[in-house]
Amino acid sequence: MELIQEQPDLAAYLAADEAVDHGHPLVRDTAATLWTAAGGDPRAFAEAAYAFVRDTVPHSADSGDERVAWRASDVLATRNGICHAKSHALAALLRARGIPAALCYQRLTDDSGADPLVHGLIALRLPGADRWYRQDPRGNKPGVDARFSTGEERLAFPVRPELGECDYPVLYAAPHPAPLRALRESADRPELWRKLPTAL
């Protein structure tokens, strides 16, 4: 699949906004710690940031946490969030160290093709690279084995077109307004599940 930049200027994928708030001290300090541990190597840092968000921020559906975090700094502070929130956190960490990061999405269903939902992940562009690499920091569990990769994709959920699933090709510089609105307007995770979009 060809990924399509929503914004032609790569600088748009380094910007801060209300959700990807990489100017926040917690985001900047976390990114600096991971950068130092990676020896200042951009690829090693990107992989470390990915593993940090995937493994130390539980997906709230797995942990049972009913709080709704959506701002990157809140996700890191509470160590809680669904896929969209975790993607905001990973994008913020990457952008804090000058690595362009985009928000991207999939439409997924259950095994019968019912109960569609929009799943959030990111794409990153390493220095000197001429392409984007999608990464899914959702968090692993039995049946889900996502990994950082700049080769063959290792996403949490490869799509099944026969069930109506799809990869959306657009790389967004800011979170798509539909899932962001659901996150911002939900008092708890049960309300969030009712409000999340089923398609973009």
From TrEMBL:
InterPro entries: Papain-like_cys_pep_sf (IPR038765), Transglutaminase-like (IPR002931)
Residue span(s) of domain Transglutaminase-like: 36-137
Signal peptide: none
Pfam families associated with the record: Transglut_core
PANTHER family linked to this entry: BLR5614 PROTEIN-RELATED, CONSERVED INTEGRAL MEMBRANE PROTEIN
Name this protein carries in UniProt: Transglutaminase
Species in which this protein is naturally found: Streptomyces subrutilus
